């Protein structure tokens, strides 16, 4: 397996059409994805003092963080509208090797910042709702 470029890790949002088309959210400078799961412990007397976990059980979630520069796109406007309304939407995570993950996410946090004579920066945090599957 070869190393992959971080610049090719893209966050895209659905345009809401059927079938959906996905647009890159903005000028992404950093992106991060975390996959977490809660374990279901099934340790019993016969476990000989070792913890045992139940495979496939528990709650799994995907969290996505991103930061960069907004470019005034339609994808940005949709993202901002979702943040203000607390709306779930379809997102796609795209990687350099062509792999894609798609699912519904809730925009938990959207922060803007900027200074005089500079670009408008943002940071965002998305949390999955339901399955996140390969596309």
What would your notes on this structure say?
This protein is mostly beta strands. The chain has one domain: Factor Xa Inhibitor (Irregular). Helices cover 9% and strands 44% of the residues. Strands 1, 2, 3, 4, 5, 6, 7 and 8 form an eight-stranded antiparallel β-sheet that branches. It is elongated. The two termini are 21 Å apart. The model has no long low-confidence stretch (mean pLDDT 90).
Task: Fill in the keyword field for this structure.
135 residues, mainly beta, Factor Xa Inhibitor, eight-stranded antiparallel β-sheet, 1 helix, 8 strands
Mean pLDDT equals 90
* CATH second-level architecture: Irregular
Largest beta-sheet characterization: 8 strands, antiparallel
Helicity level, as a percent range?
under 10%
Structural class: mainly beta
Shape: elongated
What would CATH call the class? Few Secondary Structures
- Count structural domains: 1
Low-pLDDT segments, ≥5 res? none
Indicate the CATH topology.
Factor Xa Inhibitor
- Strand content bin: 35-45%
Count of helical stretches: 1
Break the fold down into its secondary structure elements and pairings.
Blueprint: E1 10-14, E2 22-24, E3 27-37, E4 60-69, H1 74-85, E5 88-94, E6 100-113, E7 121-128, E8 133-134
Antiparallel strand pairs: 1-2, 1-5, 3-4, 4-7, 5-6, 6-7, 6-8
How would you summarize this macromolecular structure in one to three sentences?
This protein has a single domain (6-134), classed as Factor Xa Inhibitor, CATH 4.10.410. Helix content is 9%, strand content 44%.
